[in-house]
Give the backbone structure.
Amino acid sequence: MSTETTEQTVVVRTEGAAGTSSAAEKGERKYGDHHIHREDVKQIWEECKEESFWYRALPLSVGSMGVTGGLIYNGIWKASTRFGPFPKLAVAGILGFAVGKASYAPTCRSKFQNKFGPGSGPGFGPWAGRPGFGPGSGHRHCHHICQECKTQAATAPAEKIQN
């Protein structure tokens, strides 16, 4: 058992049996019957960011800038007298990039669902995938405590002393 004191708060931690470690020490969370490893989430998230950039955001950004440049060159749209075609090209590029990133969200969501099952994705938890639950729905906290957490709390309660 170890004790740490930080800014008028005392936290008591108990160490498990030799050779065992808790889910939090392993970098995983438990929701229902699923263990979600942080490394898996991080890997899928990085993959989604990279693929959304190369396969959607960059092509749509360059394409929209090309179309805008063509419209300006052909005289359908007029260039700014002060700045030339650059503001319209910049706006087209930014909008193309944003639309490309947003259009990859369903693909990314399906990657999370394939890995962790339905109801998973950015916004993990027991409320994920169910309407009326989660942030913005009025239910701010999940009061679910799994059996493993209950037994850990019963065997090693943490003390908090505030002055």
